[in-house]
Amino acid sequence: MLHYVLLALLPVAFAAPAANPVVVPHPMITARATLTDRTPTRVQERDIISSIEGLGSYLGSVLGSFPSYVASGVPNFFQDFPTGTAVQSSLGISSSDLAATPTQVLNIPNYANWTDQGWNLRFRGNVFKQPNISESKLNELANIFLVGTSIEALPPAEQTQARNLTAEIFVVQQADEKVLMNIEPAASQGSDGTSSGSNTAITPRGGTQNITLAGVTTAEGDFDQFLPLANVSGPGGYLLAGNATNTLQRLNVYANGTLTGNATSYLVPPTGLTIISDIDDILRVTRIYQPADGLLNSFAKAFTPWMNMPDIYANWSQSIPNFHFHYLTTTPEQVTRNYMDFIYKTYPGGSFDTRPLNFSDVSATLSIRKFLLEKIFQTYPERKFILVADTSNSDVMKDYPAMATEFPGQVQCIFLRNTSATDSGDKFPYDTSGFKGLNNQTYMFFKVPDDLKGLDIVNGQCVNTTIKQNVTFSTQGLPFGLSKKSAAGRVESSWNAVLLTGLVMVFGLAFGVL
After folding, report:
1. Which of 55, 349, 370, 498 could form a disulfide with 189 if both were Cys (CB 3.0 to 4.6 A apart)?
2. CB under 8 Å to 38, separation ≥6 — which residues?
């Protein structure tokens, strides 16, 4: 993966007017990358990339450590959060003070599937306590995550958000807790111009009940399980059977004993259409590929929709019957409240998935998206899926086409925003080799939300023929408009030697070592 980082730095190096000191990332945020590219390569393919790889040891000493999420392409700023007793000891919180702190529940909106035994609802979340941390300590902790600035330099509103998010990170997860949920029909969710979130979802006429989750929370305070719902009658009737309706039904799910554990979940019929949507840089402006901007946009600034993407989703919600929205982010649980709040104020209501605490490092994060995708695909073997994300996620670029192969006939469309073509700040290549062999009418790389307008996705129209596609099934987004495949065929070895020498000089001058 180092060669991706080196190539991404080329435009910066060439544009550098003078040497600047290297800012070493704080060790609590990132560590030196240890991942390697697991994609097999052929030894005889010696191209521009393999030539530049020889600079690895030299540049490693020049640049120092770089964010591991950058090296892997994983959209993840927050790694290695302290958890449980580590938070308690680092903040100097006594056991008696913690015992006096109220227990809270992060309750993640979820989905239910229909079986021969009736509806089975997924319960997913985390039990924790939030210590009372002074403002000065929160400021100190928040500055760990702010690159190139400090909380004191931010406007008041951004200071408040940074402190709130910091407080959400430094919580003490509660293991071995029993969880009781109260369930009742939900009148609404979401804000897509309707009162129901997903336009055709309805409020069931029954279903009020209490459910005690099986077992206790994990060592990290997590719970994640499917449990059957009793078809309890209400004033107007019962829950509609999944084999007798195509309509989505909404239920409010409340964690007993706390005011923080509220969520709205969906009863999703066996057949129909589900959209699985990433969030960062497709539904909101994050700029993950620019670490300083990405941290500020995630940590302090108010979440901002990406262009008119809310209009696209609102139109789908209002025009496609029984369209199930599912939002999937690999952001850790502790910082997903802002994500959920943003989604339900800006996009259609729907279920949600995030990274649990037992997936805590970069290598685990590389597999969590696939794990969560497979879970929902396996839960609904007869439903079809629309997959939406952007090219800055290396896991997306592997996992989305893999789902089409692993679950034949279930992936209706794949839509990927080409971030390197729409944001000059994205210098990192992306790999389209996973799409080789797929029907090219089932996926589209697009630049702006309007490229998605007018597509009949219900009937499988996934390609806007006015949008040029340039898929080489190789590494793309390299400097000078090259792809890995084209570079191998067109770049002469003598030119490689010249380029290599030039790069050494450029990097040496740019970073003050020559």
Report:
1. 349
2. none
DSSP code, position 190: B
Residues of the chain above pLDDT 90, percent: 57
Dig out the tokens for 442 from the structure. Answer: 């089932």
What is the percent of the chain with per-residue pLDDT over 70, rounded to a whole number? Answer: 73
pLDDT at 19: 37
The structure's pTM equals 0.80
Q: How far apart are CA 386 and CA 379, in angstroms?
A: 16
Distance from C-alpha of 238 to C-alpha of 291, rounded to nearest angstrom? 50
Cβ-proximal residues to 260 (8 Å cutoff; 6+ apart), any chain: 104, 105, 106, 107
- Which residues have a Cβ under 8 Å from the Cβ of 364 and sit 6 or more positions away? 358
Among candidates 489, 301, 470, 501, which has minimal Cα distance to 391?
A: 470
pLDDT class of 153 with cuts at 50, 70, 90: very high
Higher pLDDT, 441 or 511: 441
DSSP state of 207: -
Angle (CA) 402 107 174, round 5° = 105
Degrees to nearest 5, angle at CA 346 with 464 and 321: 55
Q: Work out the angle at residue 282's Cα, subtended by the Cα atoms of residues 81 and 346, and round it to the nearest 5 degrees.
A: 90
Helix (H) / strand (E) element for 273: namely strand 273-277
Q: Which two tokens stand for residue 465?
A: 């023929």
496, two tokens: 């490689």
